[in-house]
Amino acid sequence: MSLSENPFFRAESITKSFGQRQVLSGISADFPRSSVTAILGPSGCGKTSFLNILAGLMPADSGKLIGFPQVSFSYSFQDPRLLPWLSCLDNILFALSGLTDRQSSMERALRFIKAAGLDAYAAFKPLQLSGGMRRRLSLARAFAYPSDVCLLDEAFTSVDLKLRIELMNLFSLLWREEKRTTIFVTHDVQDALYLADRILVFSSKPARLLDIHTIDSPREARRYGSKDFSELEELLYRQILS
Amino acid sequence: MQSASDSKTSLTQVVQNQAQGHLAVKLGFGILGVGAAILTWRLAAGFIGSSLILPLPGEVAFSLMRISAHSDFWVSVLGSLRRVVLAFSLSLLVGGITGTLAAMNKPFKSFLAPLLTTIRATPVLALILIAMFWLPASGVPIFSAFLMAYPLIHGSVCAGIEAVDPELLQMAMVFKVPSRIILFKLRLPSASPFFLTGAKSALGLSWKVVVAGELLSQPAFALGTGMQDARLSLDTASVLAWAGATVFLCGMSEFALGIASRRLEKRRMELPA
Fold first, then answer.
1. Beta strands of A113-177 (E only): which ranges?
2. Which of B167, B185, B268 sits opposite A79 (nearest CB)?
3. Are residues A157 and A224 in the same domain?
4. Which of A99, A127, A146 is the last residue of a domain?
5. How far apart are the C-alpha atoms of B91 and B199, rounded to whole Å?
6. Whole domain around residue A112: which residue ranges?
7. Which tens digit of pLDDT belongs to each residue from B109-153?
8. Is the domain of A122 the same as that of A174?
9. pLDDT tens digits, one per residue of A201-240
10. Secondary element (H or E) of residue A13
11. How many domains are contained in chain A?
12. Which pLDDT does position A233 carry in this prediction?
């Protein structure tokens, strides 16, 4: 089966240690194409390290990645990582500068900056934007880059509830544009229940994969903080607190 | 009732008033410092009692007025300024290029290191004396100032590029941004604060070395030549007047560069493109 036909990306028995401290202990998981997978676990358990290994930013000590090394990634980091001397539009164009077709890069940048509601701020520099707007710009940049896999590291945390819901709704909107395979890291159960098709639950350090949950309900029908998944919610809290 | 915009305006006024107050205090203490220095000078000159060794401040001021009344003084100022601008621009150009290459290529950095260490360790006067064998009088100050300022620019550009935020580099790597774009849109702009600090030091140094070079090589129309002529005439007041003019010009150009770089940095980071 060729790579493009393979319905899954796969991580097999991934382990990682920093010195004597083991952070990932034999993690194996499948990531279906065009799905949204949440990696849920307590803060500092090694979720970001796992994401960095998938993206090829950090080598695993052992284990195997199937499909990941051959594809392109976009990444919305915990910190927006914007270039302060470039305008919003230029920040997106910077990420797209490896693409050969300049005209289509510009069109994509404009399309996604508009989708993020930042078209009026296209010429503004990041320091002139609020923290929430910078997060939106970082999300827009990740989606504007035509990658095979989109990685989001705590992209909705450290902001107030209203902004968090705004960001997650923006994510849903951007995701619908191209339905890209997305893996996002969070320590918030509600975020995972609101956005994910599948939830991988990591234990505390060294992280092991505790469980995989599938949510069949369409994303558009979900409400943030609703009790529709109360049983699953309770189970997830029990698992991450265990 | 006071509206939100009124309270915002009054807050802005309070902040502006505070800033003006700080500036006034800073300026006040600065003037006090100058006054104390002149008073010490006046007392020392009175105590020594010889204009040849240390003239009175008034005598120096009079000499400055006298020499600045001649067009030769202004031509000399322009001549020295031209040499400083040439040496400084050359060091910016060469230091910028080699600093960038050294930051991007470690073997090249190691290759240049002995040369730069030698230049840094060479006394300015030795450099000027050697340059006098090689170059015409007018070229000596430019060459010497270039050699003194160049390592500063090279070092600051190299350090600035090397100090680029690794997280931004990692971001560029994920998005597969080409190296050329990383250099021009990420590495070089990151280096700009380092570069501006280095440029300010290099400008001050250029003035000092240009005047020292002029003093020894004696080109036509130069502050250093004026200073040397005054020394040969045993006119200490005029020597100090020429030196004062040099200090003033050096300070003013550093001040202008500081304002320009602060404005540039503010504009670069804050204003819409």
1. 149-153
2. B167
3. yes
4. A146
5. 9
6. 80-146
7. 999 999 999 999 999 999 999 999 999 999 999 999 999 999 999
8. no
9. 998 888 889 899 998 888 888 888 777 778 888 888 888 8
10. strand A8-18
11. 2
12. 85
